[in-house]
Queue: 4 jobs
Job 1
Amino acid sequence: MSEHLLEVKDLSVSFATEDGTVRAVDDVSFGLERGKVLGIVGESGSGKSVTAMTLMGLTRGVNARFSGEILYKGTDLLKVSDNDLQSYRGQELGMIFQDPMTSLNPVYRIGEQIVEAIQAHEKVGKAEARARTIELLHQVGIPNPESRVDDFPHQFSGGMRQRAMIAMALSCNPAILIADEPTTALDVTIQAQIVELISRLKDEFQSSVIFITHDLGVIAEIADEILVMYAGRVVEQGTKRDIFYEPQMPYTWGLLGSIPRLDRPRADRLHTIKGMPPSLINPPEGCKFRPRCPHAFEKCAEEPALESRVEDPGHLDRCWLTVDYKRSHRDETISPGTEAA
């Protein structure tokens, strides 16, 4: 049997605001196996980053409310105190944040920040921590790490800053690496390099990875299993093959259809999903995607459960449409040739 290093059960996260309660994450469950990559995809505001930050304990506050469980090696991280949670960050769970320019302190040298992260979790001297920092920078592909370790963040390019953030996240060899949109704002060549780097380092450090992105084209290169999130909920879940070859949720069709491809005729415009994501304060009744779904019908006024509607019991979705209807209509949204590479 596969071993789940991390199990998230019925996780809900809400925030009290002046306008009302924001249900940022709503009844989310998943497991992460050792050595595997879990991809979480969806539009901005779908709950991806809040889920990741909650795993790290970074959403705690007076206005935040939580329910469910986050079980890491049997320990519920939602019940761990703030002081004890510090020992899990870095050593057990590392995180690569979305924007390295705002995550790195601009007035401290790159090396100083990685050394500080190492010494915060391990009893090592500064010289040893610096030597390890140089080795980490070398492992993530920073040229001349012996000299560049003393550079400031503004002296690094965007791709190099992201590599430095990866080095910092891996500095204490965490069991789980959470990458929150690590390729955003990078050009496609650098994106490919970062994805390849994370995949290689996962094997070298024997880590599991949670890879968060809005781009299914990126997730196709690295993920073993994929969660598709919408309006704070998981709307489809399955292996990479499930999501790319047999997608069951019209929202997933829209995400797949918006991927530009080189192996089909160039369209005048990329496909888009009509409408806007719903308010998380006043979400629509029934299926949350119903106001934007061209296939919605009367039954969609009632929200479907996340369950398997196909032969594969691990492929789950939230959609009332029949499997036969989905197979005959999804190509209207997904152009031919959308299989994963």
Job 2
Amino acid sequence: MTTTKFNIDTSLTQIISSDIAFQYRIIPFQQNEDKALFKTDNVSIDTLKQELEIVLGMSILLEKETSANIDQYLLVNYRKREINTSISSLNFTDDFLMNLLFEAKEIGSSDIHFEAFEKNCRVRFRIDGKLIEKYVVLLSEYPKIVNRIKIMASLDISEKRLPQDGRINLATEQDDFDIRVSSLPTLHGEKIVLRILTKNGLVVNLDDLGFTHQELGIYKQSVKKPNGIVLISGPTGSGKTTTLYATLKLLNTKDTNILTIEDPIEYTLEGVNQVQLKESIGLDFASTLRTFLRQDPDIIMVGEIRDAKTANMAIRAALTGHLVLSTIHTNSAWATISRLIDMGIPPFLIASTLNVSVAQRLVRKLCVTCKEEHLITKNDFPLRYEIPKALKKQFKAKGCNECYHTGYKGRKAIYEIIPINKELIENIEDKKIEIEAYLKENKIATLKDNAISLVEKGITSIEEIYSFINE
């Protein structure tokens, strides 16, 4: 269980900035019109009260609190700024928005959600795959923020009935990054989602993603073949793109011509020719793939195989001596083969071109500072789930200063990798798609196996992998 004792309401945290909270060691607990109640461990109550009333422009009430509790309140509800954004002379909307963007980048948020409802609006950050409410915005201020985002992304501020997509670049002396912008008309206003991207190339290596030693060997062997198809499956947000980019980083040499078609381009890689998908003008996956074949490529990366047309073009590229990397939405590595057959791809073509099928997911890692050891109980697992004999203990999330009281810090990928060999080729050609016995016989770990392995090692919790073992 994560610590919630020191959480305060989002609307209260916004009364003061993080800088003021840490500078004066104050925590807001109540606000009525032009009066606010704060708790503090500051010994000079009267002096502090006078100074805060000048700084905040409201009547202040102060209550004493222990230093230990103030420390906890600050760590749970506020975060010290470490980046000087070097932005000045901004109005309220710009100042709020810029500070919000740099805060999200600083704490490792992948997405920012701006949402409008009947009585208020909110801003949420996605951190380690989970959405956390960070700010409440007044209804009167929300349209200004939306319009400012749309102007920065070169979108049409007068168009509020149709979805729009754009891109923002933010650069300071300390940082330089891109933001993908998506707007969606909803009942009470436009919902905006910002995806934070990096422009500085991907620093992640295949060795650091989460492959076991055996899986890494199989995968590297498959992607270093001169031709064929490598498919990675998983839902949105499962880390497929990161795995693809880490693979391109491995394969990107001076004597190799690499072409990619992506929607969108999430990272820029030096030495790789990247094309942004634009279906509105006919630049889709299939037509771009056809053009790629006239560009003398060695390796082609297709952002996603969405339909039979794209799948057929990928097969054609592999048959003509190219290595094709792509993603597909299926639940397991073997289900990818079934999906291709359902698309109308002849099994003999799948068998002759597919090098490896990979499925992956992301799981949050327990904070090593505060995780707690517990005994295994049947209530922790789904009904009728057979608990592995090797699983003797478990660790649960608690929450501490290091992980900002979430109980988790960072994420790790788990994989299911099926290399295509002669035996599997025969099964594919005969449309035999029962695979469980084959996986056990060849000691190929499934997503479920690898998820349980992380629990055994104390890396993650049963709660985090519950959805995998409940399938």
Job 3
Amino acid sequence: MMRTMILKVTEKCNSHCAYCDVVANRAQAEHMPLNVLEIVFSRINEFLQTHPEERIGVTFHGGEPLLVGTAFYKAAYEFQQKYCRDTRDRMNYSIQSNLTLFSEDYVEIFRDLGIEQVGTSYDPEPHIRGPGTPNDSDLYNRMFMQGDMTAQKHGFKSGIIYVVTKKSLKSPLKVFHYLANLRPGGFFNMHPVILYHNRREDLAITPAEYVDFLGVIFPVWWKHQQRYPHMEPFCSMVKIIKDGYLSLSCASSGACDYHHVNVDPLGETSQCGRSSDWGLLPYGNIRGRSLEEIFSDSKRDELHVRNEVLRHGECRDCRFWTICHGDCPLDSYPKYSNFLHRSEWGCTRKVFIEQYFEPMTGLRFTPS
């Protein structure tokens, strides 16, 4: 079994994305102290020693995790060597960065840690990303391109998350071709912007608008899918519907209940990065609780019973249940103040498949 740890090493960021919940909701604590980082590695080893059948995937996250500097990651490697010599082969590492600070200085230490993948996100539209007010998009673009070229030069895999906003709706195919040129082969994912509390109405979109955005692009992608075999969310849908292979994100898997944990810069734990940003599902500080205690916290039980509640309620008889599961439970919280309802984004996959995928391809999704 693979557990997932999001290690939020800082909440500070040099990009200030217009839709970012960390910037909007959090006080932006200082970088994670090294004594907290050391405890994290000690806790990981303790858990893996107790559970020899388990693995843990650690994703360095933020904020912008490169702001902590190379010395932080050298310390992480030293703590790994100190505490995890016997369990290192059951740990996987990745990092989620805006790449604006990635340089040659990070190459060797990332390789020592075993980081082979640098996940990133990118928005070419003006005034979405970048320092300052309004956002200095030109500076952001130059820094991103430099960091991206350095990462690719050294063989780091780097997929892009593109956030679909109201600005994107004006020209879906322009967005697609831009990203396809930036990532030959289609190593990018187009994800809807998620905004709450009436923030940034100039950027917010509805689930229906997101579906129609994808619907404009899908015929072009379908015709040339061999050229872009890794583009999401389309390639996962093909694997599911045509090949019968379930390829689900954490949001649609219905299985995040006892398997995910976020650790913030001060050591406070919660379900994931988003729950940390919103102050939901706190599980205590890793200084005082073991991962065993954190992963079995009773507050997770509501996430666990959610599948049963939805399967016999709002999602009853839906043929798309096995590939949706009501979508991310956190997205139901702003409306219902609990996690036991279907997210408003929960039916976007269903609607897209029925309106666009099945009519165009002649393939029909049949649950296994």
Job 4
Amino acid sequence: METKKKYRTGFVLSGGGARGYAHLGFIKALNEEGIFPDIISGTSAGAIAGSLVADGYSPDEILEFLSTGNRLDFMRPTLPREGLLQISGFIKMLKDHLRATNFKDLKIPLYVTATDINNGKVVYFSEGNLIEAVSASMSIPVLFQPVTIGKIQYVDGGVTDNLPVYPVEDKCRYLIGSFVNPVGYVEKLSGLINIAERTFMLSMAKEVAEKKEKFDLLVAPPDLRNYGILEQEKAEELFIVGYKATKEKLRDKSIRKKLGLFP
């Protein structure tokens, strides 16, 4: 007999920079089917989306206030000592919109994945200061400076766990994942930022193959390979890609049956 799980539905959201807007379309499509998360686990862009959903915002509300600025509103060039860009704009956005300042104040339980580079290990935050944890989770190495919490420096959770199913896999009746980092052929790369971005993306691509069997539904839109992780200005397009890909998956009768949905 199957042991009763603590939560009905868990959402797992990967990292992926601006491609994370597809998470919002993914969540909207699920919400339209009456599927809402009881717990969320996210890395990087997935931690941003996850924290705002856990704070009570709808996907459309999040898209509206995240897509109003351009790339420089969120990421500004800096002297390349520890990172090429600053993420102060993202931190300001979180401070402006997150009503919860601490994990315990969220409406939905949340795990945020980051990488402790001093000890070389993955860390799953679920308590303490929310904005610090999300900031640490999205600090892509080389592109952004590490975030220091206490005496430890943290970088993007995608370095060690880009599809963070581990914190929730034994806690949920249904596991639903959104992976926004498909990789394919790229004809030409130029510039340090583009090369750093591509290298980081390739290091995270193995996650789907290793973990897909753990999910009742995993959405990984192949069209996302056409978008860079810094293309903030493509927010609405990325949202639609995630929405359409999820809608398509939910037409599959076997998936609907697995999730307990009506035909």
